[in-house]
Each structure stands twice: as structure tokens, then as C-alpha cells.
Inverse folding.
């Protein structure tokens, strides 16, 4: 059976599951239609991969025709013959063979020149900006864009406190997932929860109402217990896919396992560290990109085999690109714009945005051509079915990145 | 009234168990029942003096310093042993405040063995921080930024005159001294030039290589001159934003965020400038302040996981805890020593509380109470503790004892009811189960 049939079957099973909730038969019109379409959106899953440290976009998607490239990158330059060409001007890093395969399959969208106005070169400020999609100081220290999106989504399981978003791996919770009311979980591993036995009794969860601080702990404790309950239903993984033996491989494998278990979680988050390449950028960046590509390909293949290809979208981003001119340590310092990737069957494949010029710079840095909030707006509107303007507090035009 | 006005016990804010407990859990690594009782009896000044002078006695082994020497040699080869050794110090050192400050500066000058790849360098940095933790920031800053661990972490071990890399220059201003917003991108580039020539030599020592240094004129924060690294450090140490950032770091270590007002930071920053950036003095000012002992600062802040696990072990008098396991559980609760998540260090305040970290804390409580973390093991620390402190067999009495020991205050009625019901169950280990429940409760995650 080919994957298309599997997808179709999964869709039918899904529709049946939800149509059972509807009074009457299937003609989906009016209120019923919108309920059904919301249900369908609830089945949609967003997987975010954060490349932490500031990935060098110029050696990820190389503008090999730009005369500024060889000039500014005397030692880091990748020879044109080694690049995996996307078109007549851009080529992927040779380690991104798996991205090239996704490109071949029309499952990869590359958005060039993504950044934000008045770029800040601090990791912290730039991460906070991307995590919150807010450019002002107060907004940058507030809730995350995904947390706000989940808060906007009506959800039947609200009372169960089953997690709406899950961070996979042993990381601190990224600000992007900070929500006002939606339960969000950090899952270093499934075993970490299962080994704990009972997390807290009902009676214990009635306590902790004495202060705002204790209420917060109580709420997270409730979420922890609900998460443990969800995770207890996950069957042991039997994926035959070769995930790379690196943290991101483990995390995407875990995410695949959780998606297959139908947890009612619509956002998953993974973080790949180590992109802050101030010195000896090569070969470290290449090996990280290799892990990224191979892990993503294994993940999307597993989703396809599980009949989930059409319901999973992956977003890959980094807090900034790097300085155009390399430094004397064979590395690159903090820069501005870089590529963002969307991957998966729902993607309208292709290259978007204008590739920034390497000869027309702003104090040595690329001029961004696409505001990152436009990518978010596409994900929010065309994937999560939300009003992007409400979530982002900005009317920036979405890009046509997702198949309708 | 000055935001740093001293605390004087009074009818509204009396010196009592709650405040003794608060001082030990917020500025030390928890306390035994004997220490809590002694604190109430000896009074505010004497209790504070013991902490400030680093002369804790309970549980501190005789010849502790010699033991540390021995353990250091034993720890020399394997990574996890250095974490274990640090937990041993936190649990048993006579100077727990010194260890809290060492932990706070490890967070400030965050480096990770993941990139440094040398535990010997991490340990050397740790020793340097400990030596200067109460000293002047004028000594701490240069000592920390010239550590090979820091130079490797921020890519300054290969810093050449042409196109210097900016990593150390940026973090030096953003994280270690001024804070974001107090410098320009031009300053970053100029400071990077000034830092060229700083290297790690073949024997893993700091070394200044003159031939790689850019000797030209630089403009740093408005100052013009042919600065080298030391010249830049001098400018940064004299900058008022540095004093304010140190004040912020110290205040956030000891106070809940809502109490750290601009007025308070200004006042402490002013005193830091006047005292030549003496850290011990600033810490003493905070710990003596009314704001430190005010109601809003009590039982309101999640302790960092390293503090939380050590304090529970200490309260239950698990002096023979396998400190390598304290390390494992602290890591599961979100804090792996010598391995902070990024250059910004660890999360703060309520960000410590995630579903994953609470699962880690719950597992720790159970393992500790079941005796799985001590060398002597057995049935765990609860029964011996009850015997030692003459606690009877009644459920209410036992609950009272552990609430006083672990929370140091009157709990919510609902929590007390849950615990009494658990302790009264007809089960040989009902009391152990009650302590696990208490340690897993929302109230116990705040200190």
C-alpha cells in the first residue's frame, strides 16, 4: 500500500471518529461544517525545531552566484561543485542531503532573508523576540507566540489538563511555549514520567491555593500528572527509521512516538544546540546540519508510514544568521537575517522571499527581506486555523507557504 | 525609608521559626531541626553572624577542609565526581553562604563542560569563583574572564588581530558587566579588538600573546585609547551600569522578583560603588534588610534544584547522602552543575517549575525518604529522625514536626488534613508516605 492510501485511511478514520460526535449525517454545512473543520484543525500538528545559537544561513543556503560570497568567506566558502543546488543561485550545504531529498519530494519550503527590523545581536534579546513575536521590550518578556496561539484555540479537553504543547528533551521550557492557561509539558523522556509512580494525589492537588506562587506550582503539578497519564498510554516505540544518534534524533523520535499515540497535543518543540560558531565553524556546523536533516527526514518518513504525513508540519528557525565576513578564528560573529524552513507534505514547496545581497550590506550585515512574523502568520492562519492578527498583534501579510 | 533599611524584629515581623527557616533555605542549603531551634533561641543577630562568617557546625565533619582536599584528588578523573564534590560542600561545608554565592556566580559566569571539554578547567574556575565570591567584583571579574574555561567557552582562545571574534567582547558587556542596552555594536567590535592576544597556552593557562594583539587606538564607551583587555575591564568596572547589574544579580538571588524595585537596585548599586564593589558587604546588606525578612519574601520562591535537593537531604539529616545522586536528581529537576543550558545561565524564579522538573522533584523526595540516596540506606531517614527528636507516634504530632522542619510555618488547613490522613493510615510506612506527600506538595516547592 502506498503512503497516499495510508494517509487517506487515516483521514477517514479521523473523520469517522469525529463525525460520531455529530448529531445526524455527514453533509457538513453551516455550524456543523465549521465544527468539523475545527476538528480537522485539531488533528493538525506543528513541530518546531529551534537551531539555538544563531545558525550561519549563508553556509546553509549558499548564494553561490553572489560575488560577495567568496570574497567574505575566504576559508569557510563551500565550493559550488559541492553544493546541493536548489536553483541557479542557491545551493544547500553538502551535509543537507536529506533536505535536498525533501526538496525533490516537494516537501520543503525555504524562506530566504528572514529577520526583524532593527536587529539585536544579543542571543537573549533575539531569542525572546522570535519566541514572543514582539519587538517591544515589555512584549519580549511576556508570553510566547505559540502559548498565545494555544490560548486562542478552543479545546474540548481543557479540563483534563492534558498537554497542548510538549517540549521534547531535557531542556528548560522555551519562552515560545509560555501560555496563560494552556497546559504545556516538558518531557525529557517518557520513562522520566513513568518511573515517578503517582505524581500527586487528588487530595494533594487541592492544596497550594494560598498564594499566587503556590497556585502556579499547583497548576503545573496538575499538568505534570495529566502528562504522566497521557504518556502512560504511549506504546513502546517500534520505529525502524534510522534516527541519528544525537540529541535531536532522540527528540524527534520521541515526538514521532507521541504523535502516533494521539495525545491531543498539537504543538511539539525540539531544540538543537551548538550553532554559535564564533570559531572553527567548519566542520561543527556541517555535522549539526547533517543531524538536523537526517533526523527530520527520518521523522517525516515515519509520519508518512503512520499515515500522518498530511497532518504534520515542521518549522525550523534560528535566532539570527551570522556576520557576512568571517572572523580570524575561522568562525562568524552574530549577524542578522537567515533562512527559515518549513517541511512536510502540507508545505507548498519552493524558495520564498528575496535572497539578501552580499554586496549591499548594513554595517557588514545582511538586510532582511522577510519579517519572521509573516512566516508565523502563515502557520497560524493556514495551519492552525487562527486569526494571525489577533495572536501576533500585527497585520503583516502571511506567505503562501502551506497548501490549502 | 531607605529600601535597604535593616530588619529589626518586631511584633508584626517577629523573629520566629518561619524567618529562621527562610534564612536557611534562601541563603544557605537548608537546616536541621537542631539548627532551626537554635536559630529561634539564639536570635536574629547571632544566627545571621554564623551564616555570614561561614561557621556552621551541625553536620560539618571534623577536618572538613582536609577531606575536601582528599576528595578533590579522587575527583580528578571523572566528570560527575566534580559535581558530587560540590554537592558535598553544599551539604556539609561550614560556609554554606559561600557555596550559595559560588553557585550564583557560576550562573553569572555560566560556562559548560559540554563545550569547554575539560573538567580540570571547570574545577579551576569553580575554585576561583569560590575564592572571590565574597571579595570585590574588581577581583572576581578579571579572575573569571581570564579563566581558560571562559576563554574556551567564548571562543577567545584563538583571538587574532585581524577580524577578532566578538563572542567574549559581547558577553563581557551584556552578561558579566553592563547589561543589554548599555553599549553599542561599535563598542562590541572595539572591545573585541582590545581583547585580541588573550589566549590559552599549551599548558591550559591564560597567556597574553603580544604579537596577536591589536595595538591601535580604540573607542570604548566614549573612552579613547590603545586599550588592551585589562584597560577595557577597568572601564567596565568603573561604569555605573556594572554596579547596578551586580546589584540585580545579588537581589535576584535572595529576593522574589516583585521586591526587586528600581529604588532598591539604585540604592544597592550606589553602595557597591562606594565600597569598591565589595560583594560580601552587599550580600550582608541584603540579608540584614527588612525587605529580605518581609512577609512577601517568605515562602515565595522556588529554590534552584541544587539547593532544593541539598536542603531536603540536610533537613532529613542525610549527612551520608551519596552526593553523586544529589547531582543526578538536581539535573533531572533542571540544574546540572557545570552544565548550564546557555551563556545566560539557568532559569530564574518560577521558571524552575515545569512539569518535567516537578516530576524530578517528586522522584527525588521518594528516593530520599526510602533511603536510596544514603550510604547506610536501611529503611530511610524518617524513623531515626523521629526517634532522635523524640517525636511521638500520633499522626498529628508527626505531621506537625515535619511541617515545622520542612516548611517552617503554619500550612494551609487542606494540606495539614491530607498529611494527617496519610500519616494515620494503617500501614507501617505511613509516616514515610506522608513525608513524600509533603515534599511533593505545591507548598514544598517554595522556600
Amino acid at each position: 500500500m502506498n503512503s497516499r492510501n495510508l494517509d487517506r485511511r487515516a483521514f477517514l478514520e479521523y473523520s469517522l471518529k469525529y463525525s460520531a460526535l455529530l448529531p445526524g449525517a455527514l453533509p457538513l454545512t453551516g455550524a456543523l461544517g465549521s465544527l468539523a473543520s475545527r476538528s480537522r484543525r485539531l488533528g493538525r500538528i506543528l513541530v518546531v525545531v529551534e537551531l539555538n545559537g544563531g545558525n550561519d544561513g549563508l553556509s546553509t543556503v549558499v548564494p553561490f552566484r553572489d560575488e560577495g560570497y567568496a570574497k567574505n568567506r575566504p576559508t569557510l566558502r563551500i565550493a559550488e561543485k559541492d553544493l546541493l543546488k536548489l536553483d541557479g543561485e542557491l545551493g544547500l550545504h553538502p551535509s543537507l542531503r536529506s533536505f535536498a531529498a525533501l526538496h525533490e519530494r516537494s516537501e520543503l519550503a525555504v524562506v530566504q532573508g528572514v529577520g526583524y527590523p532593527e536587529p539585536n545581536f544579543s542571543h537573549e534579546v533575539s531569542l525572546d523576540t522570535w519566541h514572543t513575536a514582539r519587538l517591544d521590550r515589555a512584549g519580549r518578556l511576556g508570553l510566547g507566540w505559540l502559548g498565545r496561539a494555544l490560548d486562542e484555540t478552543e479545546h474540548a479537553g481543557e479540563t483534563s489538563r492534558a498537554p497542548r504543547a510538549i517540549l521534547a528533551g531535557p531542556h528548560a521550557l522555551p519562552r515560545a511555549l509560555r501560555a496563560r492557561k494552556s497546559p504545556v509539558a516538558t518531557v525529557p523522556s517518557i520513562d522520566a514520567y513513568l518511573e515517578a509512580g503517582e505524581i500527586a494525589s487528588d487530595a494533594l492537588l487541592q492544596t497550594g491555593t494560598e498564594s499566587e506562587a503556590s497556585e502556579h506550582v499547583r497548576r503545573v503539578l496538575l499538568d505534570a500528572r495529566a502528562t504522566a497519564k497521557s504518556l502512560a498510554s504511549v506504546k513502546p516505540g517500534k520505529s525502524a527509521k534510522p534516527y541519528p544518534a544525537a540529541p535531536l534524533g532522540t527528540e524527534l523520535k520521541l515526538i514521532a512516538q507521541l504523535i502516533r499515540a494521539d495525545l491531543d497535543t498539537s504543538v511539539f518543540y525540539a531544540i538543537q544546540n551548538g550553532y554559535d560558531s564564533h570559531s572553527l565553524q567548519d566542520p561543527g556546523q556541517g555535522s549539526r546540519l547533517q543531524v538536523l536533516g537526517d533526523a527530520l527526514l527520518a521523522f517525516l518518513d515515519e509520519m508518512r508510514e503512520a499515515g500522518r504525513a498530511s497532518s504534520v508540519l515542521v518549522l525550523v528557525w534560528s535566532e539570527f544568521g551570522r556576520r557576512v565576513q568571517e572572523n580570524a578564528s575561522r568562525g562568524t560573529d552574530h549577524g542578522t537575517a537567515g533562512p527559515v524552513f518549513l517541511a512536510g507534505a502540507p508545505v507548498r514547496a519552493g524558495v520564498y522571499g528575496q535572497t539578501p545581497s552580499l554586496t549591499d550590506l548594513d554595517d557588514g550585515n545582511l538586510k532582511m527581506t522577510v519579517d519572521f512574523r509573516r512566516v508565523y502568520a502563515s502557520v497560524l492562519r493556514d495551519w492552525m486555523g487562527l486569526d494571525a492578527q489577533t495572536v501576533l498583534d500585527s497585520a503583516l501579510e502571511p506567505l503562501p507557504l502551506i497548501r490549502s | 525609608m531607605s529600601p535597604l533599611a535593616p530588619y529589626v524584629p518586631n511584633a508584626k515581623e517577629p523573629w520566629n521559626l518561619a524567618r529562621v527557616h527562610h534564612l536557611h533555605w534562601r541563603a544557605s542549603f537548608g537546616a536541621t531541626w537542631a539548627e532551626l531551634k537554635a536559630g529561634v533561641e539564639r536570635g536574629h543577630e547571632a544566627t545571621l553572624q554564623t551564616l555570614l562568617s561561614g561557621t556552621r557546625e551541625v553536620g560539618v565533619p571534623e577536618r572538613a577542609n582536609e577531606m575536601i582536599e582528599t576528595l578533590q584528588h579522587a575527583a580528578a578523573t571523572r566528570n560527575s565526581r566534580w559535581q558530587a564534590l560540590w554537592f558535598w560542600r553544599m551539604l556539609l561545608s561550614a560556609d554554606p553562604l559561600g557555596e550559595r554565592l559560588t553557585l550564583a556566580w557560576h550562573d553569572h559566569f555560566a560556562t559548560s563542560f559540554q563545550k569547554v571539554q575539560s573538567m580540570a578547567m571547570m574545577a579551576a574556575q569553580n575554585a576561583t569563583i569560590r575564592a572571590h565570591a565574597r571579595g570585590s567584583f574588581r577581583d572576581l571579574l578579571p579572575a573569571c574572564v581570564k579563566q581558560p574555561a571562559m576563554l574556551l567557552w567564548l571562543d577567545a582562545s584563538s583571538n587574532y588581530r585581524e577580524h577578532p571574534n566578538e563572542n567574549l567582547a559581547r558577553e563581557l558587556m551584556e552578561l558579566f558587566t553592563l547589561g543589554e542596552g548599555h553599549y553599542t555594536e561599535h563598542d562590541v567590535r572595539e572591545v573585541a579588538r582590545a581583547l585580541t592576544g588573550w589566549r590559552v597556552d599549551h599548558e591550559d593557562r591564560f597567556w597574553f600573546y603580544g604579537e596577536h594583539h591589536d595595538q591601535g587606538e580604540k573607542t570604548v564607551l566614549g573612552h579613547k585609547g590603545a586599550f588592551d583587555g585589562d584597560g577595557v575591564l577597568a572601564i567596565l568596572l568603573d561604569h555605573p551600569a556594572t554596579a547596578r547589574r551586580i546589584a540585580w544579580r545579588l537581589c535576584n538571588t535572595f529576593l522574589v522578583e516583585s521586591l526587586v524595585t528600581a529604588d532598591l537596585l539604585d540604592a544597592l548599586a550606589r553602595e557597591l560603588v562606594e565600597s569598591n564593589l565589595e560583594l560580601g558587604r552587599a550580600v550582608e546588606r541584603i540579608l540584614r534588610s527588612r525587605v529580605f525578612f518581609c512577609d512577601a519574601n517568605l515562602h515565595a520562591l522556588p529554590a534552584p534544584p541544587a539547593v532544593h535537593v541539598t536542603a531536603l537531604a540536610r533537613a532529613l539529616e542525610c549527612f551520608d547522602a551519596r552526593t553523586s545522586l544529589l547531582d543526578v536528581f538536581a539535573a533531572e529537576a533542571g540544574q546540572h552543575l557545570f552544565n548550564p543550558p546557555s551563556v545566560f545561565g539557568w532559569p530564574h524564579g518560577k521558571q524552575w517549575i515545569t512539569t518535567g522538573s516537578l516530576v524530578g522533584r517528586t522522584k527525588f523526595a521518594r528516593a530520599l525518604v526510602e533511603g536510596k540516596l544514603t550510604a547506610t540506606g536501611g529503611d530511610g531517614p524518617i524513623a531515626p529522625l523521629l526517634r532522635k527528636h523524640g517525636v511521638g507516634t500520633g499522626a498529628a504530632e508527626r505531621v506537625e514536626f515535619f511541617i515545622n522542619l520542612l516548611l517552617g510555618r503554619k500550612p494551609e488547613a487542606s494540606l495539614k488534613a491530607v498529611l494527617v490522613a496519610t500519616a494515620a493510615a494503617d500501614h507501617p510506612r505511613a509516616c514515610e508516605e506522608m513525608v513524600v506527600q509533603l515534599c511533593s506538595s505545591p507548598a514544598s516547592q517554595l522556600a
Remarks:
- The CA atoms of residues 197 and 228 of chain A lie 9 Å apart.
- The radius of gyration of chain A is 22 Å.
- Confidence is low (pLDDT under 50) at residues 1-42 of chain A.
- The longest strand of chain A covers residues 108-115.
